[in-house]
Amino acid sequence: MAAVVEGLEPEEAGAAEDTAGLAVKAADAEPGPTPILAGNWLNLDLYPGGCHRLLHLCAQQPSPLLQVEFLQLSTHENPGLLETTLAQVPWSQLCLRSLVLKGGQSRGALGACLRGTLTTLPTALSGLTRLVHLDLSFNSLETLPACVPQLRGLGTLLLSYNHLSELPEALGTLPTLSFLAVTHNLLQRLPTALGALASLQRLDLSENLLDTLPPEIGGLSNLSELNLASNRLQSLPASLVGLQSLQLLILHSNLLTSVPAGLAHLPLLTQLDLRDNQLRNLTPELLDVPCVRLQGNPLGEASPDFPTSSGIPQDLEMPTLFLTSDVNSFPVTPQGCSVTLACGVRLQFPAGATAVPVTIHYRLWLPEPRLVSLGPHDSLLSSVLELWPHGVAFQQDVSLWLLFVPPRTRRCREVVVRTRSEDSWRDLETHLEEEAPKRLWARCQVPHFSWFLVVLRPVSNACLVPPEGTLLCSSGHPEVKVIFPPGATEEPHHVSMQVVRMAGRELRALLGEPEAAVSPLLCLTQHSPAGFLCPVTVQLPLPPGVTGFSLDCSRLHLLYRAPPAANWDDITAQVALELTHLYARFQVTRFSWYWLWYTTKTCVEGLARKAWERLRLHRVNLIALQRRRDPEQVLLQCLPRNKVDATLHRLLERYRGPEPSDTVEVFEGEKFFAAFERGIEVDADRPDCVEGRICFVFYSHLKNMKEVYVTTSLDRETQAVRGQVSFYRGSVPTEVPQEAEAARRRKGADALWMATLPIKLPSNLLSVAGRLGPDWPAVALHLGLPYHELERIRHKFRDDLDGQIRHMLFSWAERQAGQLGAVGRLVQALEQSDRRDIADEVRAVLELGRHKYQDSIRRTGLALKDPSLPGAST
């Protein structure tokens, strides 16, 4: 997102950019509200307490505000304090050229920018005779303050994201106003005096409640851009054909049934957006506009001179489909349809999206690296949805809603839908919709079908760099800027930036140095293979606690990383660092990763690599639990450390097992596997089981959980089998090591072993369960189970006879734990239920167990020479 100071002359805008690095804040290490002024720029919207700092400046004599020309103040303040502060500023004595009083610096639960508390302005503000740029966006204005129309030198007025329902007629008295933005308000009508703004070049009134336009709007002879999208317009005044300077006209998402034919004759009109209206007839001349967009209009009743491309009958209602889990395809006709898949995904095909009927197939894949493309600091929030036929282009964009796991925090991060296009991945413009608490949808428009997934990434700010240059700022870290000088490119270039911050506590723990600090980590990306013709300037804030007045330059290091390499290079000696009190500026020609370090260490490249890895590591615990009613069913899960206690508490009634493993660290998307050892084997034929090893891929926001059935080849008739499950990093090796070799490897310095947890299979009570049949209730009653307990088991496992038997036996065995004579009671209950065959088998097993026990005692030399003992030698 490029930060442009609208309404200033070119040399003034350049001065604003040059002084952007001198934004004012209080020194982090010094108490008190006194800010440090530098140049003619006063920026009080980056840090809390801006009103107190401004009041402190007003109280000084002579006031430092007299030299300020560019003032920014956040309106996320107490309403009373904000009103008091603005009333005490000596506006008439100031020489301000630009005034920004806006909210939007804070975000809500869904990541939306919050509005400030500003509801009015003091009348004294009309004394700013030199003011050319006024930004009041993201506030709570319901009416335009009376002082605004009195600012006769105003060139730019930004009023977006307020609560304005109308604009005053006095607005037409601003003779030099060239840019007016009133988007995302509640405007229902426009003043007729709007047509008197002879200098107006750009007018943005999108996202309002306008249903008509005054005819006087056709008097804006210098207007080049007009945006009326997302209103309620049903018709347009014929006077629009008088906008002879108009180049861009945006009218999408309205209720228009027709447009003036004369628009086609505007000499400079190059873009006309008429999507999502109710247009049924268009004149052929409108198609001669170089770029006209008509998707989402019911053009089925077009005139003979303009035949419809789809021929869709307009009296047919769009069908709605709800698919069950056993259906993996659905038909789409030119009529369009709305589809809800069994996995919760929703799609909407507008009428005319396809010219002929087509069958769409879908599949929901478990995420794995070959299907998931993640950046170093991205997190996956959903499974992978595949829609095919791949690459089938639609005549109109299809709407797609993907359900995803809400992230724990989205500070300086954003949710996007990522799709595969040919051989590369790209992020789609994404909108979030909340259906219920903790149930979020990511909505996007897709031009064709492929793979789709939802990703949480650091906020990406992008701009199109024109030949005349521009300024790119980070929205999450406004102190990070990139300045593109004029002549940096001959053709427009798409450029984006991402910023990641590292906690100082983690860095100091890593380095063992109390004064170590780093700046935010900056990633610069350009989407064009061609380079820039001249270097661009990057501005990074100095590391926390470091100022230009006190820093030791020998301890300041500028590090650079060029993917795909993981190494960081110290390029401090190769660039000229320009230091101010708060910032460091340098020029670059390569777009990659940059990081400022302040440390006494001399070789920081290796430390930077470790710190960068630490940024991407997740601390997790591994658990292995056995179902109480069926110990052969084992649940394996990898959990973020902060979710372990809550998860175990939730599973306690159904599962039991050892304590979680020690904390280990894994990367997003890292592979690992579970190997059962010491007589325990996996009884599974499943795609994620390789050579008896269960494969995992860790994704921090998904359930890294597998449930498997285990068995053993050891003798379980007389004693329990005590085995274990171990977790190892990486993929299952081609040659799976034996247990002894695996145990030796886990002791090495570079061991891939993560954790080992015990697994215990009880003596074979399951063999008894396997011999019982529909007569199990008789055995249960003789074991002492009440009748209502039998009815509860029948209802819970009403379609599963084996489940009824196992549940009955294991629940009874749990209650007998620690009591003597439990096996005898089981044998007696079997005999009383006329199952002497099973009772005899249990007796034989017990006798065999006694003989084995006595043999083991005798081998150790502990047997008594008493012939009365069972198995004693005679």
TrEMBL record:
Keywords: Leucine-rich repeat, Repeat. It comes from Heterocephalus glaber (Naked mole rat). Residues 326-458, 459-600 form the ZU5 domain. The record marks F449, S450, F591, S592 as: Cleavage. GO terms for biological process: apoptotic process; DNA damage response; signal transduction. The keyword Repeat applies. Residues 768-846 form the Death domain. This is P53-induced death domain-containing protein 1 isoform X2. It comes from the Eukaryota. The keyword Repeat applies. GO terms for cellular component: cytoplasm. InterPro entries: DEATH-like_dom_sf, Death_dom, Leu-rich_rpt, Leu-rich_rpt_typical-subtyp, LRR_dom_sf, LRR_domain-containing, Peptidase_S68_pidd, ZU5_dom.
